[in-house]
Amino acid sequence: MFLRLGFTSFGGPAAHVALMEAEVVVRRKWVTREEFLDLFAATNLIPGPNSTEMAIHLGYRRAGTPGLVVAGACFILPAALITAGFAVAYERLRTLPALEGLLYGLKPAMLSIVLAAMARLVLPRKKDWFFLALGFAAAAASVLGVNEIGVLFGGAALGAIASGAKKPPEKPPSDTKKAGVSPAVLALPFAASTAAGAGKLLPLGLFFLKVGSILYGSGYVLIALLRTGLVTERGWLTEAELLDAVAIGQFTPGPVLSTATFIGYLIEGPAGAAVATLAIFLPSFVLVRASAPILPKMRAAPRLAGLLDGAAAASLGLLVAATIALGRGALVDVPAWLILVAALPVAMQPKINATWIVVGGALAGLVVRAVLGHSS
C-alpha cells in the first residue's frame, strides 16, 4: 500500500496525509479517525517530514517495528528512485524538462482529496467548539504569517490547560506488538555506508543527518538550511543547482525531502545519493520508534490527552492553511476549477481508491492542455 502511495502521492504533505487517511481510516479501517488525529499531532510535535513520519507511525501501529521500517521505506523509495533518475538526466543536460504541464490536472485532483479528508476528520468534532475554535485560530494565525512551530506548540499548551475538567477516554488505543529491534539498528546501514566512503561522503551524510534531526516547519526552512550548509558554507552547490533540486523535490511524488537524493547525486554520484537519502530520513524512523509507544499512555492521561487534542486541532489548522496555499497554485483558471468540482464528489466516496482520482486528474489535465494548446 505504501509503495503505491509513494508513486502517487503528489501535492506535498497535506495531500500525502489526505491519501493516507483515505486508505487507512476510510477504506481499510486500520485506525480510527481519533487515532489518526493523534498520530498526525505526534508527527507535528517532532522534527522531520510530517507525511513520511505519518507513514512510519501507521506502519508501527499496524505491524510493530518491522511495519515501521517497511511502511517508511516503501513510501520513500519511489520518490528517491524517481529523483535519482532526474538527477542523472540533469547532470547530463544541466537543465530541467518542462514539468508544469504535467501538474496542471494533478493539483486540483489532489486538492479534492485533501478537502475530502479534512471534512472527514473535522465532522466527528463538529460539536466540540473548543477544538473547532482552536483549529480556526491556528489556520488564521498561519495564514497571517505566525511561525508554524509557535502555532503548533501554542495549540498543544492550550489543549492541555483546557483539559483539566475533562474525563479520561474510556480506553486507550491498544499498543502494537513490538519486535525486539532496537532503533539503533536502523543506523547500521548509514554507519556502514559512511564509514566505507571517502571524500565528501561522510560530511555529506552528517550534514543531512543534522537536517533531518532539526527540520521543523515549511519547505522554506529546508531551503534555508540547504542554502546555508551547501551553498554558502561548503560551496558544493550553486544557487541555481539548489533551486533546481528543490523544484525536483516538489514535482516528484512522495516526500519533498527526496531533494536530498538529487543533491547527493550532484555532489558525490550514486553513493552520495544513497547516503544523503538515508541520512535525512533516518532521524524520522528513530524519533517515531521512540515516541510511538508513548502515545497510548498520553491518551490515557487527561492532561496529556488534552495536549494531543490541542496539537491535533492546531495541526488541522495548519493543514487548512496549507490547503489554501495549495488551492492558489492549483485553481489557476476555469478548467482547473471544473476538474476540482468533478473530482470532489468522487473523493468523498469511501469505497473509491484515491489513486484513480490522481490518475483521472492527470489525464484530464493532459486533455485540457492539449485542447487549449491546439486552440491557441
Please explain how this structure is put together.
The protein is an all-alpha fold and 376 residues long. The protein has one domain. It is 76% helix and 0% strand. The chain contains 17 helices and no strands. The chain has helices at residues 2-8, 13-27, 33-45, 50-93, 100-103, 106-122, 129-143, 148-162, 188-196, 201-214, 219-233, 239-251, 259-291, 295-300, 302-330, 334-347, 354-375. α6 (106-122) runs antiparallel to α15 (302-330), α6 runs antiparallel to α17 (354-375) and α7 (129-143) runs antiparallel to α8 (148-162). It is globular, with a radius of gyration of 21 Å. The termini are far apart. The relative contact order is 0.19. Mean pLDDT is 81; it is low at 167-190 and 192-197.
